[in-house]
Amino acid sequence: MQDMSEALGLAIALIASGDADLREIVALSLYVSLSATLFSCLIGIPAGALLAVMRFPGRGALVTLVNALMGLPPVVVGLIVYLALSRSGPLGFLGLLYTPSAMIVAQTVLIAPIVTALSRQTLEDLHTEYDETFRSLCLTRLQVMGALIRDGRFALVTAALAGFGRAVAEVGAVMIVGGNIDHLTRVMTTAIALETSKGELALALSLGIVLMAIALGINALVQSVRSGAARGSYA
Amino acid sequence: MIRKLSLAAALGASLALPAAAQEDSILVQSTTSTANSGLYDYLLPLFSETSGIRVDVVAVGTGQAIGNAENCDGDVLLVHAKPSEEAFVDAGYGVERFDLMYNDFVLVGPENDPAGIDGMGVSDALAQIAESGATFVSRGDDSGTHKKELALWEAAGIDPQSGSGEWYRESGSGMGATLNTGIGMGGYVLTDRATWIAYGNKGDYGIAVEGDQSLFNQYGVILVDPEHCPSVNAEDGQAFIDWLLSEEGQSAIAGFELDGQQLFFPNAEG
């Protein structure tokens, strides 16, 4: 347990020192995971809205599939993206492997199903509630989806945060497609894995504490923006 | 619409940016032992300073490093499993293999030495571990260290698989992670000396067996063949290899010390 208190002290010292390497790693973590969250929302929210509103054969199976994909293991995603982006793979000519872009692609693949599935559920519940109103207004499907997304925006933020949380916490996918290259693709989680494997447990744990603090900060920020907006909309 | 377009442009730019930083850099597929010991943190700035070439290192087990290089995902291969390296070159994936440096493997164990192997030769020590049923934690990940360990078992005339899951435990992970596991279980672990010296979680562990001729650990360096992989940055990769094998590079390797101990011994044929 000596490691625990040592780690806490180290974490505070690390943050206080504003260590350049740490800042770089934190910045890359945020850049990669926030980009992946953004892309996942651009894909997942419209896809969730489509699934919520449209009725077509095989829809039930598709919903089940998307729900199941929420459980995609990061290391499998990493492997698939590696095989696709490898120089000997179909997208090798892009030269993206071992770059932050490859990490964004992998995390997007990982969390797009989460954003899609959670958006679908939220918007479908809303749709059931408003169905009669929509019918009486004779709205098109596209207008219905737009109205649902606007009305459900606060719940959708939670879906995005769930995706972000998964992205910033995973290590399996970014380790394979990023390679944990110093000053290029090293992020918080791969740095933690590296320090653990060096036996520097206190340093590894202190990086974990820093990561948790960042996740907490982002959630608190979103929460305050959201409650501010909510108050505004009821005023 | 304009907002959407500018958003798309920003996203496109953000994706394109990192790729543009790829000029004058090479990617080395290497092993966890060289990276975990801190060798690259010491060595690479020396090379980059004189050459202007940035070197990025992916540190995985030797088996995975060779696999990645076969997929053309790297310019230079720097690993430690000579038979696999020669097979890599023979199969046309690599240009030529050079001896680079060596150190040695050591067998580490807990202070109370449950199998009573302290100071033995490595074959006797392994036989003693198997017979006593003391826990042994293997890499089990097709790395250079794992290949070496399997060869040592074979030389000792023991099939450790017969004790798999009982006294013989395969962690399936890197050197440091396996040391963490082994120390947690109170088991013996075969490790390269550089990783062991740099390792920060030793507990009451110490070296039980060392100095045996068969524990020699040779590192080799190979340029991935640009004829097989057109994406290879052959010019800069060759410059890196030339530097490593030069007097300057060799003395730089010899100069890397931790706690007053030299971790790698250069032995390129000059």
TrEMBL record, chain A:
One of its GO terms (biological process) is transmembrane transport. Residues 26-222 form the ABC transmembrane type-1 domain. Coiled coil: none annotated. Keywords: Membrane, Transmembrane, Transmembrane helix, Transport. Its main location: membrane. Signal peptide: none annotated. It comes from the Bacteria. It comes from Roseivivax isoporae LMG 25204. It is found in: Cell membrane. This is ABC transporter permease. The chain crosses the membrane at residues 30-53, 65-85, 97-118, 154-181, 201-222. It is a multi-pass membrane protein. SUPFAM superfamilies: MetI-like. CDD domains: TM_PBP2 (cd06261). It holds the Pfam family BPD_transp_1. InterPro entries: ABC_perm_TupB-like, MetI-like, MetI-like_sf. One of its GO terms (cellular component) is plasma membrane. Belongs to the binding-protein-dependent transport system permease family. The keyword Ubl conjugation does not apply.
From TrEMBL, chain B:
The keyword Signal applies. Residues 20-248 form the PBP domain. Coiled coil: none annotated. Keywords: Signal. Residues 1-21 form the signal peptide. The keyword Signal applies. It comes from the Bacteria. This is Sulfate transporter. It comes from Roseivivax isoporae LMG 25204. The lineage of its organism: Bacteria, Pseudomonadati, Pseudomonadota, Alphaproteobacteria, Rhodobacterales.
